[in-house]
Amino acid sequence: MRIPEIGTVVAQAERAEGLGWDGITFTDSQNLIGDPFVAVALAAAATERLRFATGVTNAFTRHPAALANVAATVQETSGGRFVLGIGRGDTAMFHLGRKPMPVDAFIAAVTDLQTYLANGTVDCGGHPSRLHWLDRCRQPKVPLESLQAVSRHIQVLVRTGLIQQERTGRISRCSLDAGPMLEAAVWMNRYSKYWQQQFDLLAVTLADIDERRAASPSKPARKAAKKRRPGRK
After folding, report:
1. Residue 190: its pLDDT value, please?
2. Do residues 83 and 25 make contact, with C-beta atoms less than 8 angstroms apart?
3. pTM of the full predicted structure?
4. What backbone phi and psi angles, to 5 degrees, belong to 7?
């Protein structure tokens, strides 16, 4: 399926849902494709369960307040089916003659974005800034996923030998090496049998304790029985 965009997104979303897809991601690159948030709103109106995400937006071409506002809007209109995927900007920045956002600036912008999405207050040069209309929203906070976090996870897997990575220009292709995972699975399986036996013994012990408690009279009942004994004053 081609990249979903204005003019084709409704038919694409209906087809994806009919085929059992979990969701669709939308490109956010202002010089190459229409607005992804408008596309999400159209797709959400035409479907019932399909989920949507930006893949990915950035925190430069929209101020964090504006980005949080539009993300919360589509979260509300889609019935809570939206995830905000964000990165430092690639083609969106390239077509503005800029490089991707510096890491420090990206972290600061995402921090403000998270605060806005959580209905918190951001200090904008001494002025308190908050999305007041979120008080009236019925859907949960928009989930935020960072492409940088995914990249760091991939690098960890590369260093451990679980993933082999090949880069061609700006495209990275990853392949899984399941060998180390199989070795770990064998090791964990050996210990899982041991702990399963311990849990089974614990379950038997707890069941025995419950049976004993059920068979013995409660403390108030024992006191009442003592009071009813003949010969006691």
Report:
1. 77
2. no
3. 0.66
4. 105, -30
Closest CA to 163 of 177, 148, 150: 177
Do strands 122-124 and 144-146 pair parallel, antiparallel, or not at all (unpaired)?
Answer: unpaired
The token pair that represents 117 in the structure block:
């999405």
Distance CA(72)–CA(138), nearest Å, equals 11
Residue 175: both structure tokens together: 């392949």
Closest among 50, 118, 110 to 85, alpha carbons compared = 110
Q: How far apart are CA 149 and CA 163, in angstroms?
A: 16
Rounded to 5°, angle at Cα 89 from 86 and 94: 160
Which whole-number Å values give the CA distances from 32 to 29, 168, 226, 231, in the listed order?
A: 6, 22, 88, 98
Q: Where are the alpha helices (DSSP H) in the chain?
A: 9-18, 36-45, 64-77, 91-94, 103-117, 147-159, 179-215, 219-227
pLDDT averages per 10-residue partition of the chain, 233 residues: 83 95 94 95 97 93 97 97 92 94 89 95 96 97 78 69 73 71 77 82 89 74 59 52
